[in-house]
Amino acid sequence: MKKAQKYFMFNKKMDFQTGVLENLMLSEKGLTIGQNATGSFYSPLLDSREKKTLWHSMELEIEKISNTTEVEILIYASEEKECYQDGVLCSIEEIIKSHKITALEKAERFQAFLKKRGRGEEILLHGIEARFLWFELRFTGLGEILIKKIKIIFPKESWAEYLPDIYQQDLKSYSFVERYLGIFQSIYEKMTKEIRQISRHFDPDVAENEYLSCLVNWVGLQDSFLWEIPKLRYLIGHAAELYRKRGTVSYLMDILEIYLGNRPYIVEYHQVLPFMTTQRKEELLKRLYGENNYIFTVIIDAKAKINRKDIPMIDRIVENEKPAHMESNLVILEPYIFLGWHSYLGMNSVLSDFHSMVLDGQASIPFTKLQEERRE
């Protein structure tokens, strides 16, 4: 009866903290190295709890920020937890965890236990037979690189075991067949894993940034470059909910609130019509809110933290999301009152008693006073 495969996993900050880092940085995303640097990571001693364990493979999830950085992987294995160093019995685990011994010195001490070295995101460990295993990652290059996940799988599972007994009688031939089939086995397992995890590419909360462009096209979001990645993920995830209201005032306010972090106000022309009771009022309101039924005004609160470069972005979002036959005005409120302009009580202005200039955090120099001083 075949034994179920097990694995050791490094995919959290606390997992990598069990190892020893030299000239590396550790974050919630994984293991990384800066530019123009070299470093190494030694894993802790991994115990399969069974002697003569046949190890299967090692998989890495690597994000290269620059193609000039390489990671070399060195695999060590031993049947015992101790080894002799200069005639003295030493603990392998203590050597690994020691910060007094450099990575280079550790590699020299572990030379007798080196079983395999290589590069890439997957290494077959076929041929390694031991209870204990540990590895070193050596980082070299000029750019940055991020190790998100490391997975070591055991015991070995080989397609050659499914062949008739005649293929297993000669050990030399069997070894060749096993290694030859291992190439196709590795490709098949990688494809199977990708298929099983395909759903993660469709989840905007966890999908890699490169897949977001596909999701954006699916939901029909225009000018995705306008949006920060976290906000873009939110938009994609709530597209169905938002699109039920598409073409309405509520929808446009929701979209702008996501972008601004502050809910705007929208005034439609029909809302100001009842206030056009005199010619003077009509002229004033038309100047502020437009002159026809197909225009609306987007008013952004002074509390919204925006700068000049945001205004074209906001204009473009409004243009993309408004009904095609409508026109829009954009008004950014200023935190003071100007008669005849967009001044709203409780939004960008308040009424209070007159206070002279005092350092109490509440009063300010009125514009009238400043103008009087200038005349003098």
Put the structure in a nutshell.
The chain is an alpha+beta fold and 376 residues long. It has helices spanning 13-16, 92-97, 103-109, 171-196, 209-219, 229-237, 239-243, 249-260, 269-272, 279-289, 310-321, 367-375, and strands at 6-10, 20-22, 25-27, 30-33, 39-42, 46-47, 57-64, 70-78, 82-85, 88-91, 114-118, 122-124, 132-140, 145-154, 265-268, 295-300, 327-332. The chain contains twelve helices and 17 strands.
Shape: elongated
List unreliable stretches of 5+ residues.
368-376
Major beta-sheet overview: 6 strands, antiparallel
Strand content: 15-25%
Mean pLDDT score = 84
Helix content: 25-40%
Our measurement of the CA-to-CA distance between the termini, rounded to an integer number of angstroms, reads 101 Å
Q: Structural class given helices, strands, pairing?
A: alpha+beta
Measured on Cα atoms, how large is the radius of gyration?
33 Å
Structure explained in plain terms:
The protein has helices spanning 13-16, 92-97, 103-109, 171-196, 209-219, 229-237, 239-243, 249-260, 269-272, 279-289, 310-321, 367-375, and strands at residues 6-10, 20-22, 25-27, 30-33, 39-42, 46-47, 57-64, 70-78, 82-85, 88-91, 114-118, 122-124, 132-140, 145-154, 265-268, 295-300, 327-332. 31% of the residues lie in helices and 24% in strands. The strands form 4 sheets. Strands 1, 3, 4, 7, 12 and 14 form a 6-stranded antiparallel β-sheet that branches. Strands 2, 5, 6, 8, 11 and 13 form a 6-stranded antiparallel β-sheet that branches. A 3-stranded mixed β-sheet has the order 15-16-17. The chain is of the alpha+beta class and 376 residues long. The protein has 12 helices and 17 strands.
